[in-house]
Specification:
Elements: H1 2-23, H2 30-38, E1 43-54, E2 59-69, E3 73-75, H3 78-90, E4 99-105, H4 115-120, E5 127-128, E6 134-137, H5 145-149, E7 164-166, H6 167-186
Parallel strand pairs: 2-4
Antiparallel strand pairs: 1-2, 3-7, 4-6, 5-6
Length: 200
């Protein structure tokens, strides 16, 4: 009787262990990723989805984010924002994506192109359209994207601190940079030699 009880207990323990392992969640849900993106400074709202797209010969699992900026906000660091949004999509655990698509829109619905930032950060190749505020990365198993993403699902990325700023702040920073450049070009450096007017 004791052996039978011990065997039953061991069997129940194994079932419990394997059951827990099978039910252990991998990655984040679409809703959690969406909420984390909406919490980024300067983003008014976000819509995240994972969709299976079928054609005659291929099946694509596309993870997509549509991020809408707050009124009066602009993207100051497109590379940082692109990096964050792409890595956020890679944390979704519902299904392993085969492409990552990013849309960014201003508050008035106009397009915000951050594809140049993605390219600068080695997310290549990047595909996009000039008439639509989106780009996608679809070579996830080739370098350099494969190494940048790492194993799926990826770790939760750190939100970018200054990727999005108020338009007035961005304009002020640009005016300051322009003024400094003008000063450097137009105002000669002061010579250490005494001027002729001061030499008696």
């Amino acid at each position: 009787m004791r052996a039978r009880i011990t065997y039953s207990a061991a069997l129940a323990l194994l079932v419990g262990l394997f059951g827990c392992a099978a039910e252990e969640p991998r990655g984040r849900s679409v809703a959690v990723v969406e909420s984390s993106i909406e919490a980024v400074h300067g983003i008014e709202g976000a819509s995240v989805s994972v969709e299976r797209l079928r054609s005659t010969f291929t099946v694509v699992d596309s993870a997509t984010v549509v991020a809408r900026l707050e009124a009066g906000a602009t993207v100051a660091d497109p590379g940082s924002l692109a990096e964050y949004l792409l890595r956020s999509l890679w944390t979704i655990g519902d299904v392993r994506p085969t492409e990552l698509a990013v849309y960014v829109e201003a508050a008035d619905g106009s397009r915000v192109d951050i594809s140049s930032g993605a390219i600068d950060n080695d997310w290549s190749p990047v595909l996009g359209r000039s008439d639509s505020p989106f780009f996608l990365v679809n070579k996830l198993s080739t370098e350099p994207v494969k190494s940048k993403l790492g194993p799926w699902p990826g770790p939760v990325p750190t939100p970018p601190a200054d990727a999005i700023v108020e338009i007035d702040d961005a304009a002020s920073a640009q005016r300051s940079r322009s003024a400094n450049a003008w000063i450097a070009v137009t105002i000669p450096s002061v010579s250490k030699a005494p001027s002729a007017s001061r030499v008696k």
